[in-house]
Amino acid sequence: MQYYGYKAQIKLALYYESRGPDSSLFITEQLYPLILKFGGVPNKFIEVEFMPYGKAMVRKVKGKTEIECNHGPDECHENKVHGCALKILASKDAAAFIHCSVKSLNNNTSCLKKVREKGNKIRECVKSPKVDSIMTAFGRKTENLVPKMYYRGLLLMGNGAKSSWKMQRIKIEQLICLKIKNQGAKAVACAQYY
Protein backbone atom coordinates (compact mmCIF):
# COMPACT_ATOMS: atom_id res chain seq x y z
CA MET A 1 0.00 0.00 0.00
CA GLN A 2 1.39 3.39 -0.95
CA TYR A 3 0.78 6.44 1.20
CA TYR A 4 2.20 9.78 0.12
CA GLY A 5 5.13 8.07 -1.54
CA TYR A 6 5.83 5.72 1.36
CA LYS A 7 5.13 2.05 1.47
CA ALA A 8 3.53 0.86 4.72
CA GLN A 9 6.41 -0.47 6.81
CA ILE A 10 4.50 -3.05 8.80
CA LYS A 11 1.69 -5.23 7.54
CA LEU A 12 -0.75 -6.64 10.06
CA ALA A 13 -3.33 -9.29 9.28
CA LEU A 14 -6.00 -9.91 11.89
CA TYR A 15 -7.78 -13.26 11.70
CA TYR A 16 -10.75 -12.92 14.02
CA GLU A 17 -14.30 -13.92 14.96
CA SER A 18 -16.87 -11.13 14.83
CA ARG A 19 -18.55 -12.49 17.97
CA GLY A 20 -15.47 -13.74 19.74
CA PRO A 21 -14.91 -12.02 23.10
CA ASP A 22 -11.11 -12.16 22.70
CA SER A 23 -11.36 -10.70 19.20
CA SER A 24 -13.68 -7.92 20.39
CA LEU A 25 -11.42 -7.00 23.29
CA PHE A 26 -8.33 -6.99 21.11
CA ILE A 27 -9.94 -4.80 18.43
CA THR A 28 -11.49 -2.32 20.89
CA GLU A 29 -8.67 -2.11 23.44
CA GLN A 30 -5.52 -2.53 21.36
CA LEU A 31 -5.82 -2.55 17.58
CA TYR A 32 -8.26 0.27 16.88
CA PRO A 33 -6.69 2.68 19.41
CA LEU A 34 -3.34 1.89 17.78
CA ILE A 35 -4.77 2.64 14.33
CA LEU A 36 -6.04 6.00 15.61
CA LYS A 37 -2.74 6.77 17.32
CA PHE A 38 -0.95 6.38 13.99
CA GLY A 39 -3.46 8.69 12.31
CA GLY A 40 -5.92 6.14 10.96
CA VAL A 41 -5.47 3.89 7.96
CA PRO A 42 -3.84 4.07 5.55
CA ASN A 43 -0.67 5.53 7.00
CA LYS A 44 3.01 5.16 6.24
CA PHE A 45 3.76 2.88 9.18
CA ILE A 46 1.06 0.22 9.41
CA GLU A 47 -1.32 -1.50 7.05
CA VAL A 48 -4.11 -3.62 8.54
CA GLU A 49 -5.95 -6.44 6.80
CA PHE A 50 -9.03 -7.81 8.57
CA MET A 51 -10.04 -11.47 8.06
CA PRO A 52 -13.52 -12.06 9.58
CA TYR A 53 -13.67 -15.85 9.54
CA GLY A 54 -12.09 -17.17 12.73
CA LYS A 55 -12.56 -20.83 13.58
CA ALA A 56 -15.42 -21.35 11.10
CA MET A 57 -15.67 -24.58 9.12
CA VAL A 58 -17.03 -25.29 5.65
CA ARG A 59 -19.53 -28.15 5.39
CA LYS A 60 -21.53 -29.68 2.58
CA VAL A 61 -25.24 -29.93 3.44
CA LYS A 62 -27.53 -31.45 0.80
CA GLY A 63 -24.98 -30.59 -1.88
CA LYS A 64 -24.75 -26.96 -0.78
CA THR A 65 -21.70 -25.38 0.81
CA GLU A 66 -22.40 -23.90 4.24
CA ILE A 67 -20.12 -22.17 6.70
CA GLU A 68 -20.52 -23.16 10.35
CA CYS A 69 -19.15 -20.61 12.80
CA ASN A 70 -17.66 -21.15 16.25
CA HIS A 71 -20.28 -18.90 17.90
CA GLY A 72 -23.22 -20.06 15.78
CA PRO A 73 -25.31 -18.58 12.96
CA ASP A 74 -25.29 -15.05 14.40
CA GLU A 75 -21.52 -14.97 14.15
CA CYS A 76 -21.66 -16.23 10.56
CA HIS A 77 -24.06 -13.38 9.76
CA GLU A 78 -21.80 -10.82 11.46
CA ASN A 79 -18.75 -12.20 9.66
CA LYS A 80 -20.66 -11.61 6.41
CA VAL A 81 -21.49 -8.05 7.47
CA HIS A 82 -17.81 -7.41 8.22
CA GLY A 83 -16.75 -9.09 4.97
CA CYS A 84 -19.10 -6.93 2.91
CA ALA A 85 -18.02 -3.79 4.79
CA LEU A 86 -14.40 -4.59 3.95
CA LYS A 87 -15.27 -4.92 0.26
CA ILE A 88 -17.45 -1.80 0.07
CA LEU A 89 -15.88 0.76 2.42
CA ALA A 90 -12.56 2.58 2.20
CA SER A 91 -10.01 1.12 4.62
CA LYS A 92 -10.40 3.87 7.25
CA ASP A 93 -14.19 3.55 7.19
CA ALA A 94 -14.02 -0.26 7.28
CA ALA A 95 -11.74 -0.19 10.33
CA ALA A 96 -14.08 2.26 12.10
CA PHE A 97 -17.11 0.14 11.16
CA ILE A 98 -15.54 -3.07 12.50
CA HIS A 99 -14.58 -1.29 15.71
CA CYS A 100 -18.12 0.09 16.09
CA SER A 101 -19.63 -3.32 15.37
CA VAL A 102 -17.62 -5.32 17.89
CA LYS A 103 -17.83 -2.55 20.49
CA SER A 104 -21.63 -2.48 20.24
CA LEU A 105 -21.78 -6.29 20.45
CA ASN A 106 -22.62 -6.47 16.75
CA ASN A 107 -25.70 -4.26 16.98
CA ASN A 108 -24.92 -2.90 13.55
CA THR A 109 -27.88 -0.55 13.16
CA SER A 110 -26.03 2.50 14.48
CA CYS A 111 -22.78 1.43 12.80
CA LEU A 112 -24.48 1.11 9.40
CA LYS A 113 -26.03 4.58 9.86
CA LYS A 114 -22.56 6.04 10.38
CA VAL A 115 -21.48 4.91 6.91
CA ARG A 116 -24.62 6.50 5.40
CA GLU A 117 -25.62 5.29 1.93
CA LYS A 118 -22.94 2.61 1.96
CA GLY A 119 -24.82 0.97 4.84
CA ASN A 120 -27.54 -0.03 2.37
CA LYS A 121 -24.93 -1.45 0.02
CA ILE A 122 -23.53 -3.54 2.89
CA ARG A 123 -27.03 -4.84 3.71
CA GLU A 124 -27.59 -5.72 0.03
CA CYS A 125 -24.21 -7.46 -0.16
CA VAL A 126 -24.99 -9.62 2.89
CA LYS A 127 -28.21 -10.82 1.24
CA SER A 128 -26.67 -11.36 -2.20
CA PRO A 129 -25.01 -14.50 -3.59
CA LYS A 130 -21.67 -12.67 -3.86
CA VAL A 131 -21.28 -12.80 -0.07
CA ASP A 132 -20.52 -16.52 -0.38
CA SER A 133 -17.49 -15.84 -2.59
CA ILE A 134 -16.34 -13.08 -0.22
CA MET A 135 -16.51 -15.40 2.78
CA THR A 136 -14.98 -18.30 0.87
CA ALA A 137 -11.96 -16.10 0.09
CA PHE A 138 -11.55 -15.18 3.78
CA GLY A 139 -11.97 -18.85 4.65
CA ARG A 140 -9.32 -19.96 2.17
CA LYS A 141 -6.81 -17.43 3.52
CA THR A 142 -7.55 -18.50 7.09
CA GLU A 143 -7.41 -22.22 6.35
CA ASN A 144 -4.15 -21.86 4.40
CA LEU A 145 -2.29 -20.31 7.32
CA VAL A 146 0.92 -22.12 8.22
CA PRO A 147 0.92 -22.99 11.03
CA LYS A 148 -2.85 -23.37 11.34
CA MET A 149 -4.85 -21.01 13.53
CA TYR A 150 -5.44 -22.87 16.78
CA TYR A 151 -6.66 -19.93 18.81
CA ARG A 152 -9.84 -17.91 18.48
CA GLY A 153 -7.95 -15.07 16.89
CA LEU A 154 -4.56 -14.46 15.41
CA LEU A 155 -2.54 -11.42 14.49
CA LEU A 156 0.24 -11.76 11.96
CA MET A 157 2.94 -9.13 11.73
CA GLY A 158 4.96 -9.05 8.54
CA ASN A 159 4.48 -11.40 5.64
CA GLY A 160 3.97 -14.68 7.42
CA ALA A 161 2.86 -16.67 10.41
CA LYS A 162 6.38 -16.73 11.82
CA SER A 163 5.50 -13.60 13.80
CA SER A 164 2.20 -14.52 15.36
CA TRP A 165 0.79 -14.19 18.83
CA LYS A 166 -2.38 -15.01 20.67
CA MET A 167 -4.32 -11.76 20.75
CA GLN A 168 -4.97 -11.56 24.44
CA ARG A 169 -1.29 -11.87 25.35
CA ILE A 170 0.39 -9.16 23.34
CA LYS A 171 1.03 -5.48 23.61
CA ILE A 172 0.99 -4.79 19.92
CA GLU A 173 1.81 -1.08 20.15
CA GLN A 174 5.19 -1.74 21.72
CA LEU A 175 6.01 -4.48 19.20
CA ILE A 176 5.17 -2.24 16.24
CA CYS A 177 7.11 0.71 17.64
CA LEU A 178 10.17 -1.45 18.24
CA LYS A 179 9.92 -2.81 14.70
CA ILE A 180 9.67 0.73 13.27
CA LYS A 181 12.69 1.75 15.35
CA ASN A 182 14.66 -1.30 14.19
CA GLN A 183 13.96 -0.29 10.59
CA GLY A 184 15.62 3.06 11.26
CA ALA A 185 12.41 5.11 11.20
CA LYS A 186 10.65 7.19 13.82
CA ALA A 187 6.96 7.71 14.43
CA VAL A 188 5.56 10.40 16.70
CA ALA A 189 3.11 7.78 18.00
CA CYS A 190 6.09 5.79 19.29
CA ALA A 191 7.96 8.57 21.12
CA GLN A 192 7.67 6.79 24.49
CA TYR A 193 9.66 3.81 23.11
CA TYR A 194 12.66 5.80 21.78
TrEMBL record:
Subcellular location: Secreted
Keyword entries, A-Z: Glycoprotein, Secreted, Signal
Native organism: Orchesella cincta
Protein name, per record: Gamma-interferon-inducible lysosomal thiol reductase
GO MF terms held by the record: oxidoreductase activity, acting on a sulfur group of donors, disulfide as acceptor
Coiled coil: none
Family: Belongs to the GILT family.
GO cellular component, one term: extracellular region
Transmembrane segments: none
InterPro entries: Interferon-induced_GILT (IPR004911)
